[in-house]
Amino acid sequence: MTGSSSGIGEEIAKLLAAEGATIVVHGRDEGRASAVAEAIRATGGGAEVALGDLTTDDGADAVAAAALAGGPIDILVNNAGFIGYLSWTEATAVDWAQTYNTNVISSVRMIQRLVAQMRERHWGRVIQIGGGLSQQPIAIMPHYNASLAARHNLAVSLARELKGTGVTSNVVAPGAILANEAIRAQLTHMGQSHGWGETLEEIEHNYTLAMAPNDVGRLGRPEEIAAAVAYLASPLADYVSGATIRVDGGTVRTVI
Ligand SMILES: NC(=O)c1ccc[n+]([C@@H]2O[C@H](COP(=O)([O-])OP(=O)(O)OC[C@H]3O[C@@H](n4cnc5c(N)ncnc54)[C@H](OP(=O)(O)O)[C@@H]3O)[C@@H](O)[C@H]2O)c1
């Protein structure tokens, strides 16, 4: 479960643990990853920790070795990544390359290290966390939008590659998710500067109308992404491969 030391990944790890999976909690920061593993164990779940920067082959080797030390891996959720709030004029070629490495090649590194052993056991799940900006990119963060599109694309290619093996490859595509403290703080800051209200609830409502309009009328929660991952990870989804599940409140358009 890459990038499970905070945000969306943390909630996916907790829900899969509640469903009975033993989780390999991953991040680069030992304190954050250990805290999530400890929280899972405190509720009776099983959790180990694997630390490493997935932007390098050495880091990915260390994460895969730590993960496999506990036994074979049945489910790989590629969630690790970052959002760079840069415009077309700000994002340099280096920013584009670093974002592609972090958000796309990191996933590929884990696929290369973990999927062969799933194939040998004729069962497995590979789930990419993609995003709505892959299909409806906005003007800002072009390097990030493109990295999400690549995640969607590679997941379908992998599904074709895994034809007949018992291993599936799918995408969960979040809309705008109130995932962590940094996003809450940024929302509060934007809300104050745009006059969107005083409380987080008011600001979320007005932000949603202005920036992320959807049929439900609010931002998503990490638990809601976790629910879709839990479905795809389960035997209930044996007949689902190469698919995308959107969890975005019914977002049909963007306004910026
Ligand atoms: N939030 C949204 O609205 C949204 C919408 C669509 C898609 N997404 C995607 O969902 C994923 C999670 O987003 P989030 O908002 O939950 O972010 P987050 O809270 O910042 O979590 C990111 C996770 O990725 C890990 N990570 C980042 N860079 C890494 C690297 N180089 N090597 C290894 N681990 C790394 C972080 O670990 P450390 O503890 O080491 O930092 C952390 O566990 C991202 O891939 C993002 O693109 C988010």
Automatic annotation (TrEMBL):
InterPro entries: NAD(P)-bd_dom_sf, SDR, SDR_fam
SUPFAM superfamilies, sorted: NAD(P)-binding Rossmann-fold domains (SSF51735)
Superkingdom of origin organism: Bacteria
Listed PANTHER family: 3-OXOACYL-(ACYL-CARRIER-PROTEIN) REDUCTASE
Family from the record: Belongs to the short-chain dehydrogenases/reductases (SDR) family.
Name of protein: 3-oxoacyl-ACP reductase
Organism: Dictyobacter halimunensis
